[in-house]
Amino acid sequence: SAMIEFQNVSREYRTGDHVLKALDNLSLKIDKGEFVVILGPSGAGKSTLLNLLGGLDTATSGKIIVDGENIVDYGDKALTKYRAKSVGFIFQFYNLIPNLTACENVELMKDITDIDIYGGKILEAVGLRGHDNKFPAQLSGGEQQRVSIARALAKEPAMLLCDEPTGALDSNTGVLILSLLQNMCHEKNTTVVIVTHNSKLADAADKLIKIKNGQIEEVTINENPSDVN
Ligand code: ADP
Ligand code: ADP
Fold first, then answer.
1. From 106's CA, which of 138, 148, 175, 213 has a CA 20 to 30 Å away?
2. Global model pTM greater than 0.80
């Protein structure tokens, strides 16, 4: 059965008597360990979808079932725990803490999990051996994104949610980052959901979900996904 299921999910924004449906009665399923790419034009509802799945935002109606539980029913405490333990976030602009080193940024996750975290080891796994003691400003954009991936992986989350993870990178660096995410997905059986408007990723996805105007336009299951390149 699916690890993640959206059942008739809507997210509405009201201003006066105008209602904007950022997500409009959307349903989808994602399996454990899938490398999922969500494509769609600006304003389609991609970030909204990811924020709802990550517990950063709440649905107006519908169910979001994760490992058998409807997270829409969660109160603040349960939602905070869910975000901390189950979800790793990767953002366009890395969101690293500037006055902490790469290693300290990764080990920060110790505070919110019960896992022993060795920052140096995780940084090595994302190709950053020897960069432990550098501050974010001393690293390139691609290196900073690797640190943020290491930080997300440190929690050993069930899912990695990535919002335009290559949006601030040149295309060669972007490919290396996407390839790292694909490898981590397949090696660790972590479910990876990437939101992008870059259609180059289409062939590399296990599942490609196109959304438009808050609705599913098309879902494609790729039996033979290519390596990102
Ligand atoms: P995408 O990520 O695909 O660009 P978003 O999920 O950011 O799309 O936005 C979907 C729609 O919801 C857009 O029309 C956007 O303007 C609107 N929207 C998103 N967040 C808010 C908000 N906080 N208040 C009002 N409208 C919003
Ligand atoms: P993206 O398309 O990558 O999601 P945006 O620039 O559309 O980025 O949105 C950035 C942030 O602004 C989001 O967190 C979203 O919730 C908020 N936002 C987007 N559209 C609106 C809007 N029309 N009114 C208020 N907030 C918005």
1. 175
2. yes
